């Protein structure tokens, strides 16, 4: 399991879970496994998600997770898969995670994607608003907000804020209404990659100060080009791989700078730019 550990702030909070969610962690499926994502029921070993080599948005060398729902019959009839008591458990609020970002490719039937969670106390919640992803067979990137106000309580005696403070299970599902089980049986194929635990705060603060930077090309093979809206102060540039290891560090003092990435391994990297006032992180895919 590869996890990006950009240590902006990490809260070590202990209870009876085997793992704790961390800001900027990424499931990129480069391990060749499903990274603990599965479906329920006795048939999950054969009907559940699979790891697809070379199937990710970066092409060759980029793995992804694929799940096929049948639309009929057993538990696999619905588009629901989950991670329980693993890397997506813990205190999302203290970790600063208020949105889930991932790449998605849908085939056969369009999906209405939501995030559902169950707390350690049994309360279940699901995002009120779905993101519709058309079945066009192309990759896109979506962000699902997971602040307490973004959820509907499905069952249990507590509120969404309490669940976010002690998550046991996180689900990605497709449904026309907020749900836990995914009432809509659907025959569809979904591929997901680079599931990221992210925060809206750093992006908003950065934009407010009109300091948003851009990177190109993305995906890229030979160079990572950095462009700032202005160059009135030096900016620190850091690039991390999905294990949290810093692979590059430098200073950006011009409007446009370039980093040679031809020798980097294919995969996902997090590009962070900062000074004493602002921090922003963007994702870069090396082909």
Q: Can you describe this structure?
A:
There is one protein chain. The protein has 287 residues and is mainly beta. It folds into two domains: 173 residues, Jelly Rolls; 86 residues, Immunoglobulin-like, CATH 2.60.40. It has four helices and 19 strands. Strands 1, 2, 3, 5, 9 and 12 form a six-stranded antiparallel beta sheet that branches. Strands 4, 6, 7, 8, 10 and 11 form a six-stranded antiparallel beta sheet that branches. It is globular and about 55 Å long.
Task: Draw up the topology in text.
Layout: E1 26-27, H1 44-47, E2 50-52, E3 64-70, E4 80-84, H2 92-95, E5 99-107, E6 111-119, E7 124-127, E8 131-133, E9 140-145, E10 151-155, H3 160-164, E11 167-174, E12 187-198, H4 200-208, E13 214-216, E14 223-227, E15 235-241, E16 246-252, E17 256-260, E18 267-274, E19 279-286
List keywords for this structure.
Jelly Rolls; six-stranded antiparallel β-sheet; single chain; 2 domains; 40% strand; Immunoglobulin-like; 287 residues; disordered N terminus
């Amino acid at each position: 399991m590869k996890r990006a550990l950009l240590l902006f702030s990490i809260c070590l909070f202990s209870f009876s879970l085997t793992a704790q969610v961390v800001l900027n962690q990424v499931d990129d499926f480069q391990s060749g496994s499903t990274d603990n994502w599965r479906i329920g029921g006795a048939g999950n070993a054969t009907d559940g998600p699979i790891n697809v080599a070379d199937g990710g948005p970066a092409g060759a060398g980029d793995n992804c997770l694929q799940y096929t729902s049948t639309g009929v019959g057993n538990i696999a009839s619905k588009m629901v898969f989950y991670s329980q008591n693993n890397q997506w458990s813990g205190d999302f609020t203290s970790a600063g995670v208020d949105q889930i970002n991932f790449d998605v490719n849908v085939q056969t039937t369009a999906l209405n994607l939501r995030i559902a969670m169950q707390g350690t106390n049994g309360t279940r919640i699901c995002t009120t608003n779905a993101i519709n992803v058309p079945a066009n067979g192309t990759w896109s990137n979506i962000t699902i907000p997971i602040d307490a106000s973004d959820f509907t309580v499905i069952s249990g005696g507590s509120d969404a804020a309490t669940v976010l403070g002690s998550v046991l299970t996180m689900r990605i599902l497709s449904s026309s209404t907020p749900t836990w089980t995914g009432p809509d049986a659907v025959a569809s194929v979904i591929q997901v990659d680079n599931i990221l635990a992210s925060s809206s705060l750093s992006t908003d603060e950065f934009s407010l100060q009109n300091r948003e930077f851009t990177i190109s090309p993305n995906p890229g093979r030979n160079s990572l080009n950095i462009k700032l809206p202005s160059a009135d102060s030096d900016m620190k540039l850091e690039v991390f791989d999905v294990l949290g290891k810093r692979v590059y560090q430098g200073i950006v003092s011009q409007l446009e700078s370039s980093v040679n990435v031809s020798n980097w391994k294919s995969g996902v990297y997090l590009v962070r730019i900062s000074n004493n006032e602002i921090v922003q992180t963007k994702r870069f895919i090396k082909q």
